[in-house]
Structure formats: C-alpha cells, structure tokens
Request: fold
Amino acid sequence: MTDEVKKRDSDRLDGAIPESIYGVMAAIAFMLYCSFLITTLIFPVKTQDEVGSTLTVLPAFCGLFVFAGAQLLAIRGRSRAWSHRRNAPLVLSALLTVPLLAAMAAASFDLQASLLLQAAAWALWGLGQAIFFPMIGSLQAEIGHTEENRKLHLASIGGAVMCASVFGALALFAPDPLRSFLPALYFATTLIIFVAIRTQRRIEGDETNEESGLETLAPKFLSPTIVGGTFSVLTCYCIAHFGMRGTLGVATIGCLVGGAVFLATAMTIRRALTNTLIERLYFPITAICFFLVPTLPDFLKFVPSCIALSMFFFYAAFYWSLIIAVGRDRKTASPRHFSASLLAPSVGICIGWGIASAYALAGGNLAHPFVLFFGWIVVYTIVLSIAPYATNTLLEMDLLSPEDARPKPDPIDRSGNSWEQACELIADTYKLSPREREVFGMLAHGRNVKFIKDSLFISENTAKTHKYRIYRKLEVSTHQELLDHVERIEQKLLQQRQER
Reply:
C-alpha cells in the first residue's frame, strides 16, 4: 500500500470528507455556474423598445470585451492578486456582478435601463467574471488528482453540461419575474458551494499554493478563438431570428446534446482520439450547418442551429476538461493558467459579437440567413489573419494536441544514446513547448535556421523567433554555447551511468 493510499484512508478514518464528495460538489457548482452564464447571456437586460432585439447584444459585447481584456492584463502583469487562498476576490467578484443582476431584476418590473447603463453593468460583470470564472476552474483542478479518478472527472464535466441545460430550460417556463431572478439564484448558490468546499479543504490542509508556468499551460490561440467567434455569430443570429426564448431553447438543446456526446466519447474513447475527433469534426459540421440554414424553410432552421450549438458545447466541455487536466497534471491550483486558457475563446466571442453589433448598428438585419454564413466566414478569416501575429510564448501550447497525448520514446530504447537523453532532459528542465522541442532537437544536431524553416514549413522569421526563445530559456547566446550545454549534460549522464 502506497503512502498516498495510507494517507487517504487515514484521513477518512479521522472524519474527513471523502474526495468523491468534493468531486460531486464541484460538479454541481460548475453546473450551476454554466446555467448562470447561459441565462445571463441569452436573457440580457431588457432594452428599450425602439432599439430592437438585435442590438441587445451590444451591452453583452462590452462585458465580454472587458472580461477578455482583464484576463490579458492579469496574465501580462503576472498578478498574484487573485490567489485562490484569499477570499477578497470572491467578495469583489460578487459585488461587481450585483449591478447586472439587479438591473435584470428591475427590468422584470418594466424599469428600463438605457443602453449606456446596461453596458456599464455588463462591463462590471466582465471584471467580476474575469476573477471568479478561473477560480471555479481551479476548484475543479483540485478535485481528482489520482489516475483512477480521471474517468469520473470527465463524467462530472459532461454530466454538468447536460444538467445545465435543464436549469437553463427553467427560464423557458418560469414566469417573467422569476426568470429575471434565476441568474442571481444560480450565481449565489455557486458562491455558497464554492466557499463551503474551500473552507473545508483549508481545514483539512489539502490546498496547494504552487504557481502555474504560463509559458507551458497557456493554450494555442487559433482554434478556441475561431470556435468562440462562430458561437457568438450563431447566438446573435438566433436572437434576431428566433427571439430570446427561442434562442434559449436552441442553447438548451445544444447544451444537452453536446454534453451527452462529450460524456459518451470521453467515457469510451481514449483522450488522444477525442482530440482528433473534435479538431476534425467541429469546423466541417459547423460549416455544413451554416450552409444549410439559408436553404431550409423557417420551421427547419431550428435544427442546424441546434446542431451547431451542440458542437460548441461539445468543444467547450472537452476544452474545459483538458484545461483542468493540464492544471491537475502540473499539480497547480493557481487560477492564472485558467485565465490564460480562457483568453482565446473570449477574444473570439468578442470578435463575433463586435461584427454582429456593427452590422446591426449599420441597419443590417441579423435575422437574414446569409448573414449567419458570411459572418462565420468573416470571423474565420479575421482570426486566421491575426493569429500569426497574436501568437507568442504565452499562447503557444496547443491543447488540442497536448504533450501527454504524444508518444514518448521509451527510456530503454534510447539508453545507448546519451546525446538524445541530454536533449530530452534539457527540454523537460527548461519546460520547452512542443514546437520549441522540435526546433531545439534540430539545433542540438547542428541544423541551421534554413533547415528548420524547410523542415517545419514555417517562415524564416518564425524559425529565428523560436531559436532565440530557446537561447533565452537556456541562457545561452550562440549556437556553439547551446551545443556545449548539451555536451555538459551528456557528460553528467554518462558519469551517473558509470557510477551505477
């Protein structure tokens, strides 16, 4: 029996709450928080009648813009103010969310707010969510550290997304005053559960205070940004075409189907294959649905919209679980790497929402089906064009192809190649990203920039950028110093082998 198992059994005998209970409570908190997000985004504060339903997206766009911007500033500043061991961020997040929830409640009694006041309430909401949303993620990361709990953890994510659709559907049938109070109820309940788990785990002394390595935990910018952009364009179209209640119906069905599909694939298929399925299926299925909408009669447009949104929630469930898995595997509970991971889809949502809002302000009709398809094309093109310039070391790791999903060479197979062992050890020690590992391997074998450029099909400037990032991490200034560094590590490995 291992020390870890003995400690766990000892804790349970001493009256500690079993880890599975924490997992259930964390899943419930996640489920309620998803419901809060759905009901808040789909049912924004009532807009003045003369403005029209299409422009109700503008205040929400302001909130999402602030949400993404606040995350970016926190990451760039390497801020420690959001430490999960302090209660101040929880209180601040709740206070910043109160104006929006209060405005929604007031709107149910026909107390209308101007677009400017709504935008201000959403902006404060964005600040609050930039604080609280990553902390929900860090709570999930603290649950289920053991290998045998991985399937249970994935099941909790998929099940929570499915159950969130039920809570979101309550807004379809609840009377109007209650509907406006539902987001406040979900948010308050989530806070209570979150504080209860944190308090109990602090008593048991299970919290960890390690910081995350942002260079290795941040996701790649491209795919999540496009996914977020297409989701926001689809949501704007649904609001304009189906109205608020119809849009909530589309989101509810999409959330239910997406969570069920994720649950089925996660429980039956290996994670590496799930990565491939998502990356290969999301864009073609979404594109087909966007193509179908203009060609179908009005009573059938609901179907491809539900399918496209279900693909989004399937992607979101997987993406969320993978972020948590990375945080768990790295043994960190810091919320900062969740901020980095959420930045890319947030930026995508802002882009899509901004395009739709600008089109509506110019007098365009978002309900026209061709707007949906061309909006998707525009978002895709914009993101593809800015991604090469926006990507840096912070947003370099591709979570759709995580390092632990790649086959690693068996130490036995390379026992006779001390140079390769030295390269692998250096890459692990200095936490090189997957792309940097490829470039470093070529540099360590004497290859130049031109060879790297041709082998990886990248530009010369990109190859040089990777090269100098590796130099900076290894604290060398020339190619010869890099080779000397590898040689020194190789000599140490050979000496250790002889001593054995």
